[in-house]
Amino acid sequence: MQTLHVELGDRRYPIFIGSELDPQALLEPYIHGKQVMVVSNTTVAPLYLQHYINAIEALGKKVATCILPDGEKYKDIQHLNLIFDALLEAGFNRDCTVLALGGGVIGDMTGFASACFQRGVYFIQVPTTLLSQVDSSVGGKTGINHPLGKNMIGAFQQPQVVLADMAQLKTLPPRELSAGLAEVIKYALLGDVEFLTWLEMHMEALVAGDATLLAEAVYRSCAHKARIVANDEKEQGERALLNLGHTFGHAIESYLGYGEWLHGEAVATGMVMAADLSHRMGWISTEDLERTKKIILRAQLPIVCPKIPLEEFLAYMSHDKKVLNGQLRLVLMKSLGQAIITKEFDVELMKQAILANQA
Amino acid sequence: MQTLHVELGDRRYPIFIGSELDPQALLEPYIHGKQVMVVSNTTVAPLYLQHYINAIEALGKKVATCILPDGEKYKDIQHLNLIFDALLEAGFNRDCTVLALGGGVIGDMTGFASACFQRGVYFIQVPTTLLSQVDSSVGGKTGINHPLGKNMIGAFQQPQVVLADMAQLKTLPPRELSAGLAEVIKYALLGDVEFLTWLEMHMEALVAGDATLLAEAVYRSCAHKARIVANDEKEQGERALLNLGHTFGHAIESYLGYGEWLHGEAVATGMVMAADLSHRMGWISTEDLERTKKIILRAQLPIVCPKIPLEEFLAYMSHDKKVLNGQLRLVLMKSLGQAIITKEFDVELMKQAILANQA
Ligand SMILES: NC(=O)c1ccc[n+]([C@@H]2O[C@H](COP(=O)([O-])OP(=O)(O)OC[C@H]3O[C@@H](n4cnc5c(N)ncnc54)[C@H](O)[C@@H]3O)[C@@H](O)[C@H]2O)c1
Ligand SMILES: NC(=O)c1ccc[n+]([C@@H]2O[C@H](COP(=O)([O-])OP(=O)(O)OC[C@H]3O[C@@H](n4cnc5c(N)ncnc54)[C@H](O)[C@@H]3O)[C@@H](O)[C@H]2O)c1
Ligand SMILES: [Zn+2]
Ligand SMILES: [Zn+2]
């Protein structure tokens, strides 16, 4: 087991990363009060819920559960309210702990509920997808969707502790594992070429679910995000680097309709487009671009998207949050493994980069 | 006009207190971005909304509005969501400002919405009831009710600025003005006997709506709350003093059913019970108790509540949040104008104090 600390002053917290972690021992110091609400969904609960209930009850705590339907489309205010219902029906007070057991959807909703219940109670994350382990478990962003926009309503809420257990990834559908790998690759491309080399050595084993290697990948990914987030908790500057591939990816997701492609899949192709534009700008070499495509392909991720009319692609891109005062800012690679946030790019080259990576 | 600063480090903000304040000049430095959402209700909007729209538009800002139905029963998640709808339908982004124009209900809901929208945007309070001017505009507590409990869901969200305009109190129903005076009297009783003397000099003029005197009362009240809150933002200790009269009052409100008595009315009688118990404990004199009752009566507030079976009264009291680990803690007066939080009181004397102040 490895331990990583997210350094946020008095809200500093550890992420425990390993396989077959012991929740009883690891959670004990971080559960406040005597009441624990475990929030999960109908897919994850049958697999792992009982294990956590047993561990928490063995600590002498009262456990209640709230099982939500599975899916991004339930990440809304009505289903958030079900968590409040469960907390109040269980008679929980402001000295309780709320634990998220599931992927990013459950993590985001549960974290937000814990931020609002009684104006803030204790929160623990047990992310069960690779994506949530390497991404949503660090940074404190929580929230829900609104019909008019994703993640429009939420709070910054840091957990007390995160348990990232690789053994739980065994049941994850392969497509979901690959989607998580897209974000892993992102950390390498945006700031760590040595990590890219490491991924090139191990990609097939990662895709096959090797727990030791996955743990290492999660550790390195979280370390990158933790460092960036600690420098820029409220997303004023550097944190935007984490959006490498996301502005292009956002356009793909929006055009195809959310749910068609997984987020990680769209980000994968988006990173190819960002790399392609960085190449056209003369910042990375042909070899660098090919390395980028190859590692993404080996993670079983798409490097081209379906044909999307350019005008629509651009319109969706500019709906993205990285548009500051109407001027599009992109995360590009100044060199392989070194991303920058910039509005100094050639729009014609950007169009070429988009078109070159469509089917 | 007087200005009071609530000292909260980098979230320090001013409260402007006066009559016929100029919103254009006063708000200008505190509106962030170009988009302003004004949230109000169907009672307050016809009276004051246009005045604020004009002032904000004169500053070159885009104004949108969200008018909620009037009443505590609409302080729920469904109506909170209407604020999010309005923000997103207006196309507002994270660089917007949300202004609450109304009493405590509108202030609490709007503040909470501003805390959650895009994980936090700028918030301005224009409290239009005396109660919200002296109470909810200081301290940053925001939130909504749940069918299973009041103010169960919320956030700590500090405003950029508060405008407390006494001219707006002219339209306030007299009963609501008196309810606000209950909280004003509370500050005197819990920490400022000199303020009590001042109130004794001016109570009839305050009840009649004298703007200069009301402004002074609001200033002194906010100064007390601001000092206490600055010492104890997250309600760990001293802030509980602000609950003088509230544990008893809570039982009265709960028994009668919310909406029968105004909160301030229940607190008024609750303060009489707290004073009565403090007297029975030998802490304040008969004269002190009489002064307490008299100032409350002169504010047109009730000093006795309807007959409530003792068992039920006690049950409701212990549902109150001041119960820590099952042990009831009360805010009582060690001497007139000096409250303490204590569990060292005689339960039999408490019962006598409750029964002695029922009709
Ligand atoms: N808060 C943040 O910083 C942040 C960062 C990235 C993404 N997100 C959010 O995370 C969400 C996406 O997260 P996700 O990719 O984890 O999706 P998800 O939570 O929908 O999980 C994907 C699927 O895998 C299932 N699943 C989860 N764990 C499993 C397991 N161990 N075995 C079998 N099946 C399992 C889920 O039930 C679901 O069907 C989005 O809502 C996104 O907005 C948040
Ligand atoms: N956040 C806090 O710290 C805090 C503190 C105390 C109370 N509160 C909350 O505040 C609420 C009570 O506030 P309230 O007493 O202001 O009630 P309120 O907001 O319901 O206002 C009382 C009535 O007066 C009307 N009104 C408001 N301003 C008016 C004006 N200028 N002229 C005519 N009518 C006017 C309102 O429409 C309403 O009908 C409760 O929900 C309570 O939980 C919050
Ligand atoms: Zn992502
Ligand atoms: Zn009160």
Automatic annotation (TrEMBL), chains A, B:
Enzyme class of the recorded protein, top EC level: lyase
GO biological process terms on file: amino acid biosynthetic process; aromatic amino acid family biosynthetic process; chorismate biosynthetic process
Binding residues for Zn(2+): 183, 246, 263
Cofactor(s), by name: Co(2+); Zn(2+); NAD(+)
General function of this protein: Catalyzes the conversion of 3-deoxy-D-arabino-heptulosonate 7-phosphate (DAHP) to dehydroquinate (DHQ).
PANTHER family: 3-DEHYDROQUINATE SYNTHASE (PTHR43622), 3-DEHYDROQUINATE SYNTHASE, CHLOROPLASTIC (PTHR43622:SF7)
Protein name: 3-dehydroquinate synthase
